[in-house]
Design brief:
- Helix content is 0%, strand content 35%.
- The chain is mostly beta strands.
- The protein has strands spanning 25-30, 46-47, 51-54, 60-62, 78-82, 102-103, 108-120, 131-137, 147-148, 157-171, 176-181.
- The strands form two sheets. Strands 1, 3, 4, 5, 7, 8, 9, 10 and 11 form a nine-stranded antiparallel β-sheet that branches.
- It holds the Pfam family XM1_gp53_minor_capsid.
- InterPro entries: Gp53-like.
Length: 187
Amino acid sequence: MPGSVIGKNLSLGYAGKVSRNGINKINARQVKSILDGSGNETQPVIPFGATVVTNPDNTYSLFGATGSGVSAATFANFAGIAVSEVKQSMTYSYGSNVSGGQFEPNSPCDVLQTGTTTVFCKEGTPTANGLVYIVTVEGTAAAVGDLVATATPDGGTAVQVTNARWVNGKMDPSGIAEIVLLTQANA
């Protein structure tokens, strides 16, 4: 049949999009900003779908960001996943190295603490209700803070995200998969 979509698999969407209704808890905090002696920003942006930590000063940083005051070697300060929400009085930056948008230092950042969202799975193949791991030592295919579906990423190290599971084992051609944060890991 012309125009039929039966037998086709659609994309799972974009990283950092809340993917299912239900019990979603999203918290907003400022993205940490640290300026060097010349007034240049030293903190990285937080792309939609990225893993985020809570800093001691009540700000968010990208998981593994240097100078955030939080060690990336553990899951101890994991806050959740940066998600994009529609806000009427806010614009999101679209950097050349980030597809889909990002949160800039010193701006509000929405982080999913419980609920379901789409993320990039950088290594391994997600399985329904499968364990989720966060990279703590960079490997050949995954950087610090990337989510993977293997406990042993190639050339790197990962720890289990104890409150997360892969939703259904599907991953689209761009590497997007669905993750659920079952409980809130930290405040």
